[in-house]
Specification:
The protein contains 19 helices and 14 strands. By secondary structure, the chain is α/β, with parallel strands linked by helices. The strands form three sheets. An eight-stranded parallel β-sheet has the order 12-6-4-3-2-1-14-13. Strands 5-7-11 form a three-stranded mixed β-sheet, with no helix packed on it. The protein has a three-stranded antiparallel β-sheet with strand order 8-10-9, with no helix packed on it. GO terms for molecular function: isocitrate lyase activity; metal ion binding.
């Protein structure tokens, strides 16, 4: 007996205990509504998805080809359509997540209007987006199951028990659209207590994985902008611990913390680390500072100095009262950051780089794995990189190192379309195509994400439509560029009434009122034009 039938039988037995007052309740209708509402709270989602991520992490440890992926989304509908597309084309959501980007929350979801990625947006907008995403994913479940229930009813009406049994098996083996979300908490939006409170809200909304970075929260910058300021390790560890406490308080004992370091591109620190003895963590952090040795006689008014052995070292302090690191120390600081984070509660690492270069990433990961052999990365396949130019330059350098003639190429102008149909461009494109596979095999990348791809796709598709619709093509721009493609490519939104829940509502009306239900999906519904 299948699970769907078991639920029907259980509700039938419950109905019998209530007698006549429950005469209007149809056990199968109630079982359908239960199936369509598998997850009743955000914490159920957080636990379910944490279990998925932990299994995926363990699988990656034994097989680096089993990496995972996500795309950043800024609205529930975008996340929903992404998962519908994945199920349609790839038949499985395994290894496919959602990423919630702080950049996109700032740019697209703030009540202030578009903002830069500097933690100026309302922090409550982050858990609100998590809740919205899971609302849309659960609605995708309800809609798809409603379609299956309609098929089951049609098979029964036709007396086709074989077809009915097949549909029942699809119902029992239904794969939910609910997948893990890796959610960006920026630098924690304040002190560790503020971080803990926001992390709780994010987990309660359904987040199983929280990503936090080692920048100063009130000086936070986008990882691909200048002016980044890091904090001493003890400060960051306090926030990692705060997030872990939030998970534990809410019973998500296997929640995932992604510790991001911006040290590769951050040349500044807001304060010196506390050190108690030579070589301790604070002393290691301070050892990267750009300093000059001075004597007692050279001390100036208000100078800050470090004592190292019998030397006095004066850190270089800017007019902003920030201290400067020595140039060229970024990779060493990244390694120390990552090892320290993993030793203090983090589960995954995020190294923000300035370019997508596997050898650079692998060099840092190799050093980290000398201390933590199973260290794994979440890596930002960022739209802030010029992928075409970066990989054409990498291809140029590779060909040159192999003795090939590259005189036909201008290395500084490789973005030019004149190179599109060349061997160098084809080599570069192949390296881009395999970047995720190669990075996971060589550089310990467990999860590949693109932070803000749907920001760009929304702009591009809108530009395509506006250019034609307001130009000579008129309505043909929409029909040819959108609707005709939706019909022929099986995009579910062509039946936008169905996608918005109209048929699902009709089903409920019928459950509630039987033959008296006033339904929207009758013969005069123009959605029927789409078959």
């Amino acid at each position: 007996m299948n699970a769907y039938q078991n639920d029907i039988d259980a509700i039938r037995a419950l109905k019998a205990t209530h007698g006549a007052p429950w005469d209007a309740i149809d056990p199968e209708s109630a079982a359908r509504m239960r199936a369509q509402n598998r997850f009743r709270t955000g914490l159920e989602i957080a636990q379910y998805t944490a279990d998925i991520m932990r299994r995926d992490m363990a699988e990656y440890d034994t097989d680096p080809s089993a990496y995972t992926q996500s795309l950043g989304v800024w609205h529930g509908f975008i996340g929903q359509q992404k998962l519908i597309s994945i199920k349609k084309h790839l038949k499985s959501t395994k290894g496919r997540y959602l990423y919630l980007s702080g950049w996109m929350v700032a740019a697209l979801r703030s009540e202030f209007g578009p903002l830069p990625d500097q933690s100026m947006h309302e922090k409550t907008s982050v858990p609100a987006l998590i809740e919205e995403l899971y609302t849309f994913l659960r609605q995708a479940d309800a809609r798809e199951l409603d379609l299956l229930f309609a098929k089951l009813d049609a098979a029964r009406a036709a007396g086709d028990e074989t077809a009915a049994e097949f549909v029942r098996s699809q119902i029992d083996n239904f794969q939910t659209h609910v997948v893990p979300i890796i959610a960006d908490i920026d630098a924690g939006f304040g002190n560790p207590e503020a971080t803990y409170l926001l992390a709780k809200k994010m987990i309660e909304a359904g987040a199983c994985a929280i990503q936090i970075e080692n920048q100063v929260s009130d000086e936070k910058q986008c990882g691909h902008q200048d002016g980044k300021v890091t904090v001493p390790h003890e400060d960051f560890i306090a926030k990692l611990t705060a997030v872990r406490y939030a998970f534990l308080e809410l019973g998500i004992d296997n929640g995932i913390i992604v510790a991001r370091t911006d040290s590769l591109g951050a040349g500044l620190t807001q304060k010196l680390a506390v050190t108690r003895e030579p070589g301790d963590l604070g002393d290691q952090y301070n050892s990267f500072l750009d300093t000059e040795e001075i004597s007692h006689a050279e001390l100036g008014n208000g100078d800050v100095v470090l004592a190292r052995g019998d030397k006095l070292l004066r850190p270089k302090r800017l007019a902003s009262n920030l201290f400067q690191f020595r140039p060229g120390t970024g990779e060493e600081r990244v390694v120390l950051d990552c090892v320290t984070s993993l030793r203090n509660g983090a589960d995954l690492l995020w190294i923000e780089t300035e370019k997508p270069h596997i050898d650079q990433i692998a060099g840092m990961v190799d050093a980290i794995r000398e201390e933590i052999p199973d260290a794994k990365l979440v890596y930002n396949n960022s739209p802030s990189f010029n992928w075409t130019l970066n990989f054409r330059q990498q291809a140029y350098d590779l060909l040159e190192s192999e003795g090939a003639d590259v005189s036909a190429y201008d290395r500084n102008n490789l973005m030019s379309a004149e190179y599109d149909d060349t061997d160098l461009a084809r080599l570069a494109d192949e390296k881009i195509r395999t970047f995720q596979r190669d990075g996971s095999a060589r550089a310990g990348i467990f999860h590949h994400l693109i932070t803000l791809p749907t920001y760009h796709t929304a702009a591009l598709s809108t530009d395509d439509l506006a250019k034609g619709y307001f130009g000579d093509d008129g309505m043909l721009a929409y029909v040819r560029g959108v609707q005709r493609r939706e019909i022929r490519e099986g995009i579910a939104t062509v039946k936008h009434q169905n996608m918005a829940g109209s048929d699902l509502g009709d089903s409920h009306k019928e459950y509630f009122a039987g033959e008296a239900a006033l339904k929207a999906g009758g013969v005069h519904n123009t959605m029927n034009q789409f078959g």
